[in-house]
Amino acid sequence: MEITILGTSSAIPIPGRNLSGTVLKYENEYVLFDCGEGTQFSIRKLQLHPSKIKTICITHLHGDHSFGLPGLISGINYSNKSDFLTIIGPVGIKELLEVSQKHQQFFADFPIEIRELDFMNQPGIVYDSNLYSISAISLNHRIPAFGYRFDEHPKAGKLDVDLAERLGVQKGPLLRELKEGRSVVSETGKTIFPSDVLAEPKPSKSFSYITDTRYCSRSVALAKGSDLLMHEATYLHELKAKADETGHSTAFEAGTIAKEAGVKKLVLFHYSARYPNLNPLYREAIAVFPATHMGNDFETLRIE
Ligand SMILES: [Zn+2]
Ligand SMILES: [Zn+2]
Fold this sequence. Notes:
Largest sheet: 7 strands, mixed
Order of helices and strands: EEEHEHHEHEEEEHHEEHEHEHHEHEE
Strand order of the largest sheet: 6-5-4-3-2-1-16
Bound molecules: zinc ion
Oligomer: single chain
């Protein structure tokens, strides 16, 4: 599982910092979190494949997180079409795309499902496939905003083929039954249970994406135990009053959320343009949560 950050700037793009957009690569498909202006260009610059985007999760409708959406959909249509696209976001996203489609005349020759979210006080599943699920929860911003969490479905542990053979199960359909979690009867008439031949399942990997919110206890509930949390850090804590007024978090608060949620790693982004040097934000966050990393544009992080 890989996370590629396309933009780390809040509000406006500045040289070296684009607007919000993060690609999660899992198996052979992508999930895109937010789609600020320029997202399509960054995707192409990094030679990612737009048609591999199967799900787009938009945190909220402010332009720095959504202005890139019509362009990206139109671009997917131009080059290598998608077979199916699901777009998840706050109420209003459907109307926004319909108006844009009508007046800007962009087309998508592939099915698009739009799922609109209402206020969610608890984390709830908003997307589920055979590979992974995505949950969402309401954040605390100036307009309705949602945090998202990606959870890989648990995978069965590795099958010990030699052991299965010694227990009288030969290669073939019976091995597949065991691998899929069903018990079988061996050649000698003995029942073999999956737990006899399967190693412990690997822990599922998880990723949380939280941006454009004041400090919020719901963020902790969503990110609980995540392998990686991307959290906004728009301001230093000395500008806490401004953060509250504009519906944002400070680096100190991002570190506090990571600590309270017990995540393995925190990656900060969505920096105010007032900070050309990010070291003060970094110092503030690591004082609370040592496993902090300052996210950079076009950086790829692996979740092992
Ligand atoms: Zn923003
Ligand atoms: Zn916003």
